[in-house]
Amino acid sequence: MPRVLNFCRCKLPPTLIWITAAILFYLTFRACVENSNPSPALLSSSHSYSSMSILERRKLLYDKMARDLDEHGAAFLKGGETSQSLSISDLFELRNGSVTPVLKVADPPVRATVLYLSSEYSIPISKAVRETFLPYFNDVIWFQNTSIYHSSMFHASHHLTPVTATDDEIEAEANIIKGVAELVCPLKIILDRVVLTSTGVLLGCWQIISGTDPAIIRGKLRDALPRAPKKQLYDSVLLHTSFARLLGRPKILLEKPEMPSDQLQLFHELVGALNNKLQGFEATMSELWFVEEYDVLALALNGRIKTRRFPLGCRGN
Questions:
Q1: Does 49 reside within a domain?
Q2: Which residue(s) pair with 12 in the sheet?
Q3: Residue 226: CATH number of its domain
Q4: Angle, in degrees to the nearest 10, between helices 119-133 and 263-278
Q5: What is the pLDDT of residue 76?
Q6: Residue 20 within a domain
Q7: Contacts of residue 202, Cβ cutoff 8 Å, sequence gap at least 6
Q8: d(Cα 140, Cα 122) in Å, to the nearest integer?
């Protein structure tokens, strides 16, 4: 019996050491496996955080856009520049009491990729814009053509950084964009707000309910079109649509003295009235267009364009 006791006292420490080492090895192995293969819940949480970051960034951008009129005043009343550094007086003129665009050849043509907003949505939006603003700006307002409501995504070439291309190269770009469209899912969107910029543009600012986020679409296009201008025209998270452009003073201030004398106050009241009609408006974007603009700002001014339309296929979901 004493020998047995001696045996146990002799063998017990190495046994404990071996068992402890085995447990530590197992726990370390489990930790490595779990870290290399996150759980679905962890992945979902990470995805939600990323999505929330984009939503918040977009909201902050829209807040800044909404402050633009107060911070810079109504520059459009003084013939100021557009957001793309073009003079308003170079883009429009008044003929026979109506606004007429001044079309200028784009050399080389601008090559833009845009998300199309169908007339199912553009017509009721335009109706609300006209009802709200036309009585005040009857001959100094330009309404966006409802057949080409859109949100700009990416430019293979723009007027600030022209990128020339042969016909074959343009066709290759079109095929590349078609391939991107096949991966992208249709976007269900909701109108966050309408803002009036200091340059006189009425913009619809959208948030995303579902589908591929604009930031991801732009990233795919950037990767697919390496020759495109490094500096693009818009923030990567922005999703906006031009509804109309104000080009002069509201005549109602002269015709009805009881109206507010402060022009900025009137502008805010009109934008507020339009938001009461349109805020929360939902739509779906299901086509990506590749547009060659043969005139400067042809999409905005009803100029000459060549359009290739690609349905969003959602194959990359």
A1: no
A2: none
A3: 3.90.1140.10
A4: 150
A5: 87
A6: no
A7: 129, 133, 194, 195, 196, 242, 243, 244, 245, 246, 271, 274
A8: 21
Cα-flanking dihedrals φ and ψ of residue 76, to 5°? -65, -20
Question: Which domain, by its residues, includes 99?
Answer: 59-311
Instruction: Indicate the number of domains in the chain.
Output: 1
User: Coil, helix or strand for 179?
Assistant: helix
Q: What distance in Å separates the CA atoms of residue 102 and residue 109, rounded to the nearest whole number?
A: 16
CB 141 within 8 A of CB 97: no
| Neighbour-count burial for 253-285, b at 16+ CB within 10 Å, e otherwise | eeeeeeeeeeeeebbbebbeebbebbeebebbb
pLDDT at residue number 286: 98
DSSP conformation class of 144: P
Say if 28 falls within a structural domain. no
Q: What is the pLDDT of residues 32-82, one digit of tens each?
A: 333 333 333 222 233 443 556 899 999 999 999 999 999 999 988 886 555
From the list 132, 129, 141, the residue with the least C-alpha distance to 101 is 141
Helix or strand (DSSP H, E) at 143: strand 141-143
262 token code pair: 């402060």
Name residue, tokens 């085995």: 22
Give the residue-averaged pLDDT of 161-188: 97
Structure tokens at 48: 């939600």
> CA nearest 278: which of 123, 67, 73?
123
Is 132 part of any domain?
yes
Distance from C-alpha of 175 to C-alpha of 308, rounded to nearest angstrom: 10
- Residue 268 corresponds to which tokens in the numbers above? 């805010």
Cβ atoms of residues 302 and 92 within 8 Å: no
Q: Collapsing DSSP states into helix, strand and coil, what is residue 295?
A: strand
